[in-house]
């Protein structure tokens, strides 16, 4: 992993130019996570144009998200960050989640989300890091503790034990099921369910393949992108651009043409749209279909 190239990609040019790798401290972890979510967009444009996400090697992720200035979804985002953190000396344990965000109660969903359990040398506290949950990505590391509301630059988050009465399907064969929740207004809403059990690389490959090829996947069905700023979240779903501000206000804009969508992906999300073959044609077909 080219650490200096990554640091430049996320805007930490001064750190890259210093010639010294950042020390594996909590301050470094916080700085990297915040810079990452503000510069490398969550996006699923490859699945949208029919390109499966089949290679999650550090080399492939570096080539796509650093060299080609693209984004990616959770397996790519957290895969890239895991490689960086490991090289810097952090202890990184991959975990998997089952997304329940905005879902009606029903059967147990598949494990199609990746997050990281990160240890800082010399500290007993572990941290949950997730730079790949789209419109609700935690913008800062979270202490891996239960039932404690944790403030971040944008919303509050917490980790709780699974509660089957709150849209939490329960697997009777799995112990220690946990839920990541975000506070929206006065309500705590579950984002995904997970366990502290480490996941091998092959599980990420299976999840990424499913999420990037299955007809019911939202990444296959529509153009999606998200990025955080210091005070807001910007989300694109098809032609609908939404900006949620930290003060609770929301601004929605319907983009009227393919050119407008491409412009927004470039200017607001920092995505090199020229790098995504077939995107213009796919967007044209989607807009025509309504």
TrEMBL record:
GO terms for molecular function: acetyltransferase activity. It comes from Gordonia amarae. This is Arylamine N-acetyltransferase. Coiled coil: none annotated. It comes from the Bacteria. Gene3D superfamilies: Arylamine N-acetyltransferase, Cysteine proteinases. Belongs to the arylamine N-acetyltransferase family. InterPro entries: Arylamine_N-AcTrfase, Papain-like_cys_pep_sf. The lineage of its organism: Bacteria, Bacillati, Actinomycetota, Actinomycetes, Mycobacteriales.
């Amino acid at each position: 992993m080219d650490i200096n190239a990554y640091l430049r990609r996320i805007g930490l040019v001064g750190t890259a130019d210093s010639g010294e790798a950042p020390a594996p401290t909590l301050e470094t972890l916080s700085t990297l996570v915040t810079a990452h979510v503000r510069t490398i967009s969550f996006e699923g444009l490859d699945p949208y144009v029919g390109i499966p996400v089949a290679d999650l090697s550090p080399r492939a992720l570096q080539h796509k998200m650093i060299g080609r200035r693209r984004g990616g979804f959770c397996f790519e985002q957290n895969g890239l960050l895991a490689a960086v953190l490991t090289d810097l000396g952090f202890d990184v344990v991959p975990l998997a989640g089952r997304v329940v965000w905005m879902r009606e109660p029903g059967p147990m969903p598949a494990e199609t989300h990746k997050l990281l359990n990160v240890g800082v040398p010399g500290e007993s506290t572990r941290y949950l890091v997730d730079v790949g949950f789209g419109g609700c990505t935690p913008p800062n590391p979270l202490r891996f503790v239960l039932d404690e509301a944790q403030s971040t630059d944008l919303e509050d988050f917490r980790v709780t034990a699974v509660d089957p009465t709150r849209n939490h399907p329960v697997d009777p064969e799995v112990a220690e099921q946990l839920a990541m929740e975000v506070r929206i207004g006065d309500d705590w809403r579950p984002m995904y369910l997970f366990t502290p059990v480490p996941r091998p690389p092959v599980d990420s490959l299976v999840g990424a393949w499913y999420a990037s090829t299955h007809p019911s996947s939202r990444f296959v069905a529509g153009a999606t992108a998200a990025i955080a700023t210091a005070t807001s979240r910007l989300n694109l779903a098809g032609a609908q651009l939404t900006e949620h501000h930290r003060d609770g206000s929301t601004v929605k804009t319907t983009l009227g043409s393919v050119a407008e969508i491409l412009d927004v992906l470039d200017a607001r999300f920092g995505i090199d749209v020229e790098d995504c073959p077939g995107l213009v044609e796919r967007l044209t077909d989607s807009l025509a279909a309504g």
